[in-house]
Amino acid sequence: MTAPQRTADPSLDRIERSVRIDATVDKVWAALTRADLLARWFGQRVTLEARVGGRLTLHWDTPRDVRPEDRDCYGTFLADVTELEEGRVFAFRWALRADLEPDAGNSTLVRFTLRPDGSGTLLTVVESGFSELTAVDPTETVRKNTEGWAFELGELVEYLTGAAT
Known about the structure:
This is Vanillate O-demethylase oxidoreductase VanB. The protein has a single domain, classed as Alpha-D-Glucose-1,6-Bisphosphate, Chain A, domain 4. It is 22% helix and 34% strand. The protein has 3 helices and 7 strands.
């Protein structure tokens, strides 16, 4: 199998989603940076060294009825924490295939920013670097991850507020 060719299409380089959450910045920050809380909405098992250079592992169990084309969305994904600014920014570089170390060609950068918004929090997630991928198909990865962030952020809102988006 030949690795997908690198693409220069800038429209493939980033996914950006923002959501207002009816919860304090402290509560949202904890849900992003405490492994026990992160596992309630993002993966089933999580470990996190919450420091720049720390390791994040995210594990999604494979459902019995998963479609073969979605099987690569499950397993243990490895990430390195790249930025941590208390209550404001949490970022990591994660490998887009299970059990691989994140490196150039197989990983993207995920960056969460938090901002107070009245009694709630405006959370923005940006995943970037798709145009540099060589180990996975950038176009298909953007499609899957766009759907994935809509789902995962919905789970975060539901976890923090007890209400569906």
